[in-house]
Amino acid sequence: MLSVILAAFQPGLCHAGDDPLALYGDDHQTPFVSRDGQPGLFREATEEMLRRAGLPYTLTLTPWRRAQAEVLGGGGGLIMNLARTPARETEYRWMVRVLPTAYVLAGLAKDYQSLTEAFADGPVVVLAGTPRADEALKSGGPDRVVQVNDPQQAVRLLRGGRVSAWYEIDLRILHAWRSAGFAPESLRIGAPQQVTGSYLAANPGLPDADRVEARLRMAFASMQADGSWQRILAAYIGPERAQGVAAAAWAE
């Protein structure tokens, strides 16, 4: 587990006596949150928001289930890159909507519009333990689903023609494909099967939550306005896709 103590102050914004916020994230959630070598687009955005808002914080990156348990078990926690779902709606306070998250099917031969269509042409690869894996297994059964633990394994299977499609979050697919040295234009991506919002969320008992939320939202708005959010996105998913994602977030 990585635990780093950071204090982010900006003159005129930070209140004397502010206690550090406890910020949590997954320790391996590429390209959204990761360790220092490539911190991830969501982590970079969150830390910049906190810096601009003048809010000191501690950062803990740990396995995903533990990160969620720590936030809900304490009274002052924030968690990065949490999908807003009906099951979670009342469990968290939804501070800042940062990203639209789309589940898509990516192929090389065609742009698949459904799992059924992809299964007709061959197996589908998914990341084990994800909601996409559960959905694919329910739809096609274990004989038609290849589960892997690393996005680069999925890239190799798709590139090698051993599966018809990869079912995953669109931005993760694009980042993994680019990281492997392949042009995003070689992928054919179908319409989203599901779209949710990825949030910076908080324990409902976060002290002074109204003030913290207002400052974070103002900070993110300033990042959108000056182009810094789009630049963060471009470093991970390329400038063309970054422009569309940044525009979608701005429209919220």
UniProtKB/TrEMBL annotation:
Q: Which organism is it from?
A: Novispirillum itersonii (Aquaspirillum itersonii)
Q: What is this protein called?
A: Polar amino acid transport system substrate-binding protein
